[in-house]
Amino acid sequence: MKKFYLVCLTLLSFGLSADVTVEKMTEIESRVDSMSLSELQERRSYLMRTERQLMATQSSTQNPSTVKSSSSRLAEIRAELSAIQKALLAIAGLAAINSLTDDGYNDNVPPVITVNGSNPATVELGTTYTDAGATAMDEFHGTTPVTSSGSVDTNAVGSYTITYTATDKDGNTATATRTVNVVDTTAPVVTVTGDNPATTELGDTYTDAGATASDASGTVEVVTSGTVDTDTVGEYTLTYTATDPSGNAGTATRTVNVTDTTAPVFTSSATFVVDENVTAVGNVTATDLDTVTFTIGATTGPAVLGTTASQLVITSDGVLSFDIAPDYDSQVPDVQVFADPDAFGTVTEILPGTLSGYETGATMDFTATVTATDASGNTTTQDITVQVRDIGGADDDTGTGTGTGTGTGTGTATNTLTPDNTRPVFKSSSTFVVDENVTEIGTVIATIDDAPNTVTVSYTIGATTGPAINGNGSTSNLQIDASTGALSFDIAPDYDVQVPDVKLYGGKDTYDCNTVGIATQNCFPTVRTETLSGYETGATMDFTATVTATSSLGTNITTTQDITVQVRDVGGVDDDTGTGTGTGTGTGTGTGTATNTVGGDTSSPGT
Q1: What 3-state class would DSSP assign to 13?
Q2: Does residue 252 sit in the same domain as residue 276?
Q3: pLDDT of residue 16
């Protein structure tokens, strides 16, 4: 045992001196060499007390600077104790050592535990922690086994303690601890769901697919920032952010491209109709979610005589016009004109001929292709036709024509209108058919074909002739709107108020008698009720009146038409609710409807 201890002293001296600088070891050895035996023993006792105090300090603190300074001091003390042991061995021999290591020596010095690695130690959340352990050295027994207790949960952020314990052969126990901090310094990983970049059409509704996030701490929420304006073409960015409980934030982004791939749609007509000698045509329009500009291609039109052909032009906003006002009369003639035969029967062609359109009303047509382009470059086309109408007939150019009316001159010829060509002509039917109990009938139409557009027609109506009305019923009269010709009744006619034209009699034994002379009577079958034959035949209730159409050129330029309005029955015999009267043995009262029946018993149920 004592030999073992001597070996341990040697090893301890080697190990401890390794932690002390050469200069310090030289100083210690010089001091020890100058001491007497008693001084060495006293110094040794002092150093061992100091060692125990420092070891107690180490076991009770986790302050890194305190642990470091006490460890440095312990190394010096142990180096000096080692030097004293060697000096004692040299002065007093093995007997001095024996007296120090005798089995009866009271060893109350616990082992010294050294924690390996970092203290405190740090480990990332979700990773694996492997403890570096600790070692222990006992002053009298050398290396001493160390046990550890405590655990580290790397799935939960926090501070954990590992305790190391060493007990020497004399039962002296020492402990040391390590603090292990589980920290989370890793940001969540955000994964964008769906397409990235994503594309959506201008004007559509964009629904974002969102994003998910994973983190060692568990489930974390993803917050989206940024907007997508689907009404404006462009590139937009959505940012997804996830923050874990430790404040680490992870982000990801999605690019959303709002594009326009839809071409404009024309909303205006492909055909415009204008009069000759004007440049303005109209507006071409197209719908699109973005700004639309218009262009036009080459114009195709009729051949003209010796003048510059008119071309269609358009502004970027769609205003369509001619660069030169088209002249209907400038077209190349398509009809040959011949003079009357001369005395010899010779027929001579009159040049340059004429245009069939003067008779047929055919228009002078111009065509061109209009292109609508939106801000994204999407295009659509429409073939536009402009139909130019003739105004004034053949050779209506001022200053060049020859008047064919009553006057002549070098200006525009003027035709004289007469009652024969300005008298209104009725175009509507003279008969109208309507149902009973309505006031509106229809429209009377009269026109003056040869008159200018400024000439108008007004209407008046004469007295109404209609069927006789039973009792105190109101008579319906026809009326007309003076400017529009709208024909109507002032009171809605009721088919059932006409004076009956059919009598219905009672049974064969029912008579009405009156006395004629002395004891003489004339007897007739009793008349039960009267009705209208129209219920069976479908005959209409007819109203007539004379309508006069007057030209605005003069009150004496008029035309008349006899109008008949035929009113049809609706609902059959006495279809008026709440107004019928039963003529049978019962009495119809209140709001009930009594119905007369032709033939048989006609008693009405009382109420």
Answers
A1: helix
A2: no
A3: 45
- 296: pLDDT confidence band, cut at 50, 70 and 90? very high
Same domain, yes or no: 287 and 325: yes
For the segment 193-248, what is each residue's pLDDT rounded down to a tens digit? 999 999 999 999 999 999 999 999 999 999 999 999 999 999 999 999 999 999 99
Q: Residue 434: pLDDT above 80?
A: yes
Q: Clarify whether residues 253 and 275 are in a common domain.
A: no
Per-position b or e across 52-83, b if 16+ CB within 10 A of its CB: bebbebbbeeeeeeebeebeeebbbbbbbbbb
Q: What pLDDT does 13 receive?
A: 45
Question: For 147, how many CA atoms within 13 A lie in the half-sphere containing its CB?
Answer: 5
397 pLDDT band (50/70/90 cuts)? Answer: low
The answer to whether residues 273 and 381 belong to one domain is: yes
Which CATH number fits the domain that encloses residue 345? Answer: 2.60.40.60
429 and 562 belong to one structural domain: yes
CB atoms within 10 A of CB 150: 13
Question: Whole-model pTM above 0.70?
Answer: no
* 254-263 CB burial, b ≥16 within 10 A, e <16: bebebebebb
Helix axes 64-92, 2-17, angle to 10 degrees: 130
CATH number at residue 249: 2.60.40.10
Say what the alpha-carbon torsion angle 134, 135, 138, 142 is, to the nearest 10 degrees. 170
Higher confidence at residue 409 or residue 212?
212
pLDDT the model gives residue 467: 93
Domain shared by 431 and 564, yes or no:
yes
* Lowest pLDDT segment from 380-384, 451-455, 555-559: 451-455
What is the gyration radius of the CA atoms in the chain, in angstroms? 63
Domain assignment present for residue 136? The answer is no
First to last CA, the chain: 140
Please check whether residue 586 is in contact with residue 565, taking contact to mean a CB–CB distance below 8 angstroms. no
Q: Hey, CA dihedral for 33, 36, 39, 41, is it positive or negative?
A: positive
Is the Cβ–Cβ distance between 422 and 450 less than 8 Å?
A: yes
Q: Are residues 452 and 539 in the same domain?
A: yes
**489 φ, ψ (degrees, to nearest 5):** -95, 145
| Angstrom distance (rounded) from CA 116 to CA 129 | 14
Which of 224, 259, 294 is the last residue in one of the domains? 259
Q: What is the DSSP letter of 115?
A: E
Structural domain contains residue 255: yes
Structurally, the chain folds into a number of domains equal to 4
The answer to whether residue 293 sits within a structural domain is yes
Residue 202's closest CA among 180, 228, 232?
232
Write out the DSSP string of 47-112.
Answer: HHHHHHHHHHHHHT---HHHHHHHHHHHHHHHHHHHHHHHHHHHHH-HHHHHHHH-TTS---PPPE
Which residue range is the domain that position 69 belongs to? Answer: 1-105
Residue 154 placed within a domain: no
Q: What is the DSSP letter of 113?
A: E
